[in-house]
Automatic annotation (TrEMBL):
Keywords: DNA-binding, Transcription, Transcription regulation. This is GntR family transcriptional regulator. Transmembrane segments: none annotated. Pfam families: GntR. It comes from the Bacteria. It comes from Pedobacter ginsenosidimutans. The keyword Transcription regulation applies.
């Protein structure tokens, strides 16, 4: 995984974990990689992964079963969507709106490009 210098690594790892969940690679109530396993896989300090897991536990996305490991929560999909939606609306949408305004891109063009993106990337 390549990290972006503009955002804290633990937040980028949280995005990675959420993406695994939304893509269906990790299922509800599954055990996820341990802190050490994830740290080795992503080549980061275990404390960074622990910070990520604690954040996601606070968002009710992960559950810690003491002595066993971290597991996805029962309603993890809904929690991930809520968390990611909040992050997107607060962090990314203002910049997107600014660029739409400055570049004079209207919503019809945006809608057309969005539909093309979805059909090329997610419709089999």
């Amino acid at each position: 995984m390549e990290f972006n210098n503009n955002k804290a690594i633990y937040l980028q790892i949280a995005e990675y974990v959420c993406e695994q969940i939304l893509l269906g690679k990790w299922k509800t109530e599954d055990k996820i990689p341990s802190v050490r396993e994830m740290a080795v896989e992503l080549e980061v300090n275990p404390n960074t992964v622990m910070r990520t897991y604690e954040l996601l536990q606070g968002k009710n996305i992960l559950n810690n079963k003491r002595g066993i490991g971290f597991f996805l929560a029962d309603n993890t999909i809904d929690q991930v969507k809520q968390y990611r939606k909040t992050c997107f609306i607060e962090d990314e949408l203002p910049n997107l709106f600014r660029n739409l305004y400055l570049l004079e891109i209207d919503f019809d063009e945006l809608k057309s490009r969005y539909q093309t993106f979805v059909s090329q990337n997610f419709n089999a």
